[in-house]
Amino acid sequence: MSLQFPHGNVELDQISVVNRPSFLVDHRSFSTEVVAVCDYLALAIAGSFVLAALHPGQGSPWTANLSMLAISMLVFMLCARMFRSHAESALKALPGHILRTLAALCASLVVTFGLLSALAEPGHVTLPMLGWWFLAAAWLIVSWRCLVLWFAGKRSFRSLLAKRTVVIGSAPFLREMSAYFGGRTDTGYDLVGTFDTASEVDRDSATPYIGGMGNLRHWCVRHRIRTVLIENAPANPAASERILTLIDGLAADVRLLGRASIPEKPEQALISRFGGWVAVQVRDKPVRNWDELAKRTLDILGSGALILTLLPLFGLIAAAISLESPGGVLFRQRRFGFQNEEISVLKFRSMYVHKQDVSGAQRTTRGDPRVTKVGRILRRTSLDEIPQLFNVFMGTMSLVGPRPHATAMKVGDQLYHEAVAHYAQRHRVKPGITGLAQINGFRGEVDSMEHAQGRLDNDLRYLGSWSLALDIKILLRTVGCVFGDRNAY
Asked: Are residue 335 and residue 478 in the same domain, yes or no?
């Protein structure tokens, strides 16, 4: 049995070949994320209660206690992953799930005690205190686990957790899909908008929205769409290609729907069904669910710590820039950010004010006369980029991700985002201060199509293989690249 797609028929057994390995596929539901957050809160609340009860008005200062709680939560996060306490499959067996979580909790407290003993001598952290901490956290975890799972089984609660979804296709297709979603509340999807490919009218009205393709991407970004379902009409194969191009940079699951006869519950991870329509997932959200929170936590903690540590360096660089040439210390530039939206990126000014190019249309070349002496040192060591730590802390950028490019940046005589096919797909994650392309030698001036394509290929590789461990590896390798790369000037 095969499905009809723009480039020909695809057999279902061929589709299953492109499935990612099961340990890389994130099928965790929102209920699982709520369970995980409740577990971390239980650990923190129990620890705070035990510290306050056993050491009232005395003991270590609150900063030491706060540090201990933060360390314990980070260790518990790692232990929970090792014991697979928050895996979707674990929720199906409540007793086993609770035992896994309690084992992870016990291991995390033991490791925390070992770390604190090795780094300092906290007199108030004793084995009896850890025992009470474990009992209090275990009681909260079991109680909240039962409460969350009870709520998750309620139909009214499941509807609040459904993925925000839009449907795109012909009028008959939209009517059928609207009827399908309208008559069911247990699909896990919340249909918030429909787009008619034959309509030339764009209206920004209340949902369900019915209109053309003109502002499709902006509408999806504004309404936080998580899933896009597209009718794949064999009679008009170019329509699907056009829609996929329009939403290239959208961070959402994208599925093509066609008519086919398959079992009611297909085993392939990339295949699902909506009534009489079979959906093949052609694009997925690179960073999702709990991983989004983990990456954002790394960004906040990492950027916050670096900002505090580098404050004296910020002052020295600002003084050097001001002494060499008149003008502001910081340089702001509009660049492409998450989901292709424009953001304002901060840098230390490295050029003379009257010569700098805010648009980014003019490339910086080796020996560029626009660059100041101090600016040359800053660019060579990438110190001009460190104000972007504030972008990371505020949430418009990440520590690791594809580098944000200026909106008018060119490759030869063409704009970068027009010269390189599928360029916008790199914007499905937040842009970063450093990335996989930068540590693999694609840093500095983009002076050829080969260099531009190489950057994009590395960025797409990063999207396809993202993990928190990969982010940390890139950050560590960046230190060596900054001082050993001759491509930056």
From this structure: yes
